[in-house]
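Ex. 9. Protein: Crp/Fnr family transcriptional regulator.
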Amino acid sequence: MEAIRNILINKIGLKEEHYPDLKKVLTKVHFKKKEFLIKEGKTCSFIGFLEIGALRSYILKDGNEFNIDFYLPGSLVSSYTSFLTQTPSIGYIQTLSESEVYILNQSDYNKLIKLNPEYNKLGKFISDSLFLKKCKRETSLLMDSASDRYKFLLGLYPHIEQIVPQYHIASYLGIKPESLSRMKSLTYINEKKHTSK
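Predicted structure tokens for Crp/Fnr family transcriptional regulator:
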């Protein structure tokens, strides 16, 4: 909960007095490994704040899974287009490990904004954060090589390789697991050559 308080006060600019209202409507939910927060075809009615664990979001196409995002502690979690439009989600959000998520339901979110317009700052922070993350991901996919996409991912989540299986990372990068292994080996060899000079 301290991480959420820090976001509210230090990043969003709300005051200490606003925190109890948010705390009151957040529900802590424990998820086992491989549980779903949302499935394709279901409408998303929440914004989550990941406290513990790791999640992934993915879409299914022709029976194959394509990872489109990862969530590590401190992340905002939502099928956000579905949340905004109240239409069915096109993808899934699934836990990669036991996880704890603080859930803010849409009805409570709307009540907060009615209670105090200052909570629009929270809405803007959520929208901006999720939008910018999506834009960076899409730009990286279009403009960067697989190696640069890998570096981008490590920049976002420095310890992701200790948490997320390699085949999920490869799917996110749009390459095969064996290609990721080769790329990591070449990176390691090049770094070793560079440091030995």
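Check your answer against this statement. The radius of gyration is 18 Å.
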